[in-house]
Amino acid sequence: MKDLFKAGKKKMIAAKVAISTVALVGATSVQAALPSTAAPTNAAAAGDYIGLIKGYAFDIAIVLGLILGTIAFLTVSKNMIAVYADIGAGKKTWGDMGMHGGMGVLLLVMVIYLITEASTVIF
Fold first, then answer.
1. pLDDT 10s digits, 50-65
2. Whose CB among 50, 68, 86, 105 lies 3.0–4.6 Å from 91's, allowing a Cys bridge?
3. Of 76, 79, 97, which Cα lies nearest the Cα of 87?
4. Are 76 and 111 in contact (CB under 8 A)?
5. Could you state, in order of their start, the residue ranges of all structural domains in the chain?
6. Which residues contact 41 (CB under 8 A, 6 or more apart)?
7. 110-119, pLDDT tens digit by residue?
């Protein structure tokens, strides 16, 4: 008798899964159409697919450059926080913090300058 109930329970679960799958598939076909993609900043002429790919590659390179700049900023910030913690522990002085801050600013300026120059040279 127990086996009969277990088999019935398994069939009921399978039926629920089948019904929910059919409902899910039926509901997804009612979704609206996707929006069109945005043209790249260096839009090519109509029908020029190589130019279109170059435009998207340029945009991707710009985004990667922005990510690189963000990583540099976060690295400098992490270093400054570590130096501040060392000042609290008595291992470093405020002069060390100023030196790290100055070098961090120079590093960020150099990274931003190189990213800007690279964006004009890429394509």
1. 888 888 888 888 888 8
2. 86
3. 97
4. no
5. 1-31, 38-121
6. 55, 58, 59, 62
7. 988 988 887 7
